[in-house]
Amino acid sequence: MSAATVFDEMGWPDDVRTPYALIDAWLRDTPPDQLALKRREAEVLFRRIGITFAVYTEGGDAERLIPFDLIPRVLAQAEWRNLRRGLEQRARALNAFMHDVYHDREIIRAGRVPERLVLHNSQFRPEMCGLDLPGQMYAHICGIDMVRTGPNDYYVLEDNCRTPSGVSYMLENREVMLRLFPDLFRRNTVAPVAHYPDELLATLRSLAPPNCPGEPTIVLLTPGIHNSAYYEHAFLADEMGIDLVEGADLVVSKDVCYQRTTKGLERVDVIYRRVDDDYLDPLVFRPDSMLGVPGLHFANRAGNLTITNAVGTGIADDKAVYIHVPEMVRFYLGEEPLLKNVPTHDCSKPDELAYVLDRLDELVVKAVHGSGGYGMLVGPHASRDELAAFRQQLVQRPHDYIAQPTLSLSTVPTFVDDGIAPRHVDLRPFVLCGADQVRVVPGGLTRVALKEGSLVVNSSQGGGTKDTWILED
User: Fold this and answer.
1) What Pfam families does the database record attribute to this sequence (predicted)?
2) How far separated are the first and last CA of the chain, in Å rounded?
């Protein structure tokens, strides 16, 4: 992938695009040592606030700061407006698919999605079959990962419909930028994001279960302080003004969920859970789980409790199911997809597997259930040994993998040790799907691959984040 084929969203330094005009002036007027000082101030702020994530697989201190870049990513309102429409459309189609999968399975009977991808999928939860949810919504918080390859070329990289994370970093990135560069904001009309917790709370309230006796009581269920995203759990609960609870704080009696408080048991109506399906209810899923609550699933089925995101939403995260999302849009909404998928090869098909094996050094290969940048091969950057090992895995377990071309991801100027340089980025907007409406806060979490030439933006793989600006008209 040559530098000439890569679209730089700013066009810096010689051909600056209009949305970045004021950023260009700011960078030209700000000496590098001043930017370095501000970067150190940002790190101090993040440490003081306690914005960390955890990596438990590499030894040493598990708590890490996500590197933060000072140069914001900017999108014009017209660019964002088109993206927002596509995101809303995609989220509606994914939720319609999940409702159908757990009810009539019309899309399977119509031959639009192979039965094996659904009914033989490890993320399919037969316990959810026939259960009607408020507004027929399953993935109430969606994180849809987007990449850009040109001025008008956006692709959906993957859909995150289980427990997508990262929104706290979006909010704190903006807060830090406002503290460090208030004059920059005064010169730009940037759409706010601080209202996301209010929008999330409104979404959760709209999902009150059928038997809710009044205003719903909402809690956020966390696995605990050792979870990699615990900071975000605590942050969101605090911002929404709801209780942060662990499994031991809840109890189910006669199919009603209660929270243990100093005043006794208090009914809970909606749980925003950040605990995986397998650990949510030991009576139904893993019996050895100490993170969940016995009976949660039965309270849900009885109409006394809403769990967000719903159990079984992992079926829409599957990277082989992803291939069929454009067809879901057509099937359920009767519309043409506004957002494009990355062309994807299904390695479970012999002819496509042969194609992938012949071009392994050119493609990105991903585990169907992988996440966080793990379980994937970036062919052009892989060693001979890595290619050989992945080839063997593909031959042995072709159903577990998909492959995609190596896209020329867009770059955004980034302040690195050697100065300002282009680095590849993606974008995770957050779509809130309530029983009443779909909400999208302007922007999202921009993740940046800080290593030169790297396409892996995940924080667990050394990536950082940027503030994302949507300019208002």
Assistant:
1) CP_ATPgrasp_2 (PF14403)
2) 35
